[in-house]
Amino acid sequence: MMSTTAEYVLTYFPIRGRAEHIRLLLEDCKIPYRQNLIANENWKQLKARGPETGEIPFAQLPVLHEAGTSLYLAQSGAIARHLARRHHKYGQNELEASLADMLYDTASDIRQVYRDFIFDENWQAKRESFVSNASNRFALLEKFMSSRNTPYLAGQDTTFADYHLLEVIHIIQRVQSDIIRPYSWLQSFCQKMESRPNIAEYLKSSRRFEKPVPLPHA
Ligand SMILES: N[C@@H](CCC(=O)N[C@@H](CS)C(=O)NCC(=O)O)C(=O)O
């Protein structure tokens, strides 16, 4: 949701990248935020002065700024967790919070496999092994989640981990559209996430960027 009375400003590039699960969380919870989209040609300058002004503490994006505070938060995982704590998306109890942490990191590991593949100059030759690796990782997640049998990763409601996993599935489906077909829990998870009204609206809106990363084949 875009708003003129934004609680948060999310600074990132005009791609989905590492910001997308943060956007999904903001959108699903209808938290007012504004996007500060940095074009490539402006990034060098901003990167050079960001650590000095405090606006980009570690010279990388995404960064979340909270309106009315001096807080400029870097690191996508820290941003997602910060919003989750503030907006009741960190589980109903400590066990759910720990599960959300574990499953967020599991989704990050799968995302890293995707990044290693997509940025590999021999990506075409490695497509099959990438798909097999990603599928094996989804199989383990499927096994774990089937044994718990909750609708969302940590329990009955979404946590920051669910938005991350949804985006990780979406980016890998761009490589292999039926990647989660063998996995019934993951399929039902995806359907549930995609049919949440605010997510459904966002996914088809012009606010959502088509590209996960700025590469022609991604
Ligand atoms: N661990 C950081 C990594 C941030 C990161 O790698 N950001 C990239 C974009 S996805 C970036 O700012 N690249 C531009 C640069 O380093 O100059 C996070 O999760 O936020």
From TrEMBL:
GO molecular function terms noted in the UniProt entry: glutathione transferase activity
Q: What class of enzyme is it?
A: transferase
Its EC number(s): 2.5.1.18
Protein's recorded name: glutathione transferase
Gene3D superfamilies in UniProt: 1.20.1050.130
Among PANTHER family, the record links this protein to: GLUTATHIONE S-TRANSFERASE (PTHR11571)
Q: Where exactly are the transmembrane stretches of this chain?
A: none
Family, per the entry?
Answer: Belongs to the GST superfamily. Pi family.
Q: Looking at the record's lineage, which domain of life comes first? A: Eukaryota
Please give the subunit comment from the record: Homodimer.
Give the organism's phylogenetic lineage.
Eukaryota, Rhodophyta, Bangiophyceae, Galdieriales, Galdieriaceae
User: Taking every annotated instance into account, which residue ranges of this chain make up the domain GST N-terminal?
Assistant: 6-91
Q: Which UniProt keywords apply?
A: Transferase
InterPro entries assigned to the protein according to its UniProt record, in alphabetical order: Glutathione-S-Trfase_C-like, Glutathione-S-Trfase_C_sf, Glutathione_S-Trfase, Glutathione_S-Trfase_N, GST_C, GST_superfamily, Thioredoxin-like_sf
Answer whether the UniProt record assigns the keyword Transferase to this protein: yes
Q: Which Pfam families match?
A: GST_C_3 (PF14497), GST_N (PF02798)
A GO biological process held by the record: glutathione metabolic process
Q: What region holds the GST C-terminal domain?
A: 93-213
